[in-house]
Amino acid sequence: MEAFGNYLLKSAVWLTGFTLVFLVFLRNERYFRLNRAYLLSGIFASVVFPFYTWHYAVMLPSLPAAEISIPDVTEQLTITAPATAAATSSGIPNTIVVRDSSGNINAGLAAAKQIVGYIKNGDKTFQVNK
Fold this sequence. Notes:
single chain; mainly alpha; 2 domains; two-stranded antiparallel ribbon; 4 helices; elongated
């Protein structure tokens, strides 16, 4: 049924194209046989053309590959938060040390733990706007 719907859509597009060409160029033409032949061939073509699929190759120029270097972070960054009973009971460390790119993953995990602690226990230790 889907194939029939695709066929009807393609046929409608072809028929619309032929009709638009007729309306723009041949509507005021006095050669009625030419108009009749064009309209009949347009109807025939809109029935036949949807069965055929045109394939063509597109040649694109190759682009040089860009080299991207990710710098290795070697600095140590220490962030210390105030130690509270809620923070230690939820297992959230109060000191985060970032030594390399895996620090982003650790910071994301710590943020997720903070969110879970807020949702489960109502922990507002790390709330910014009080």
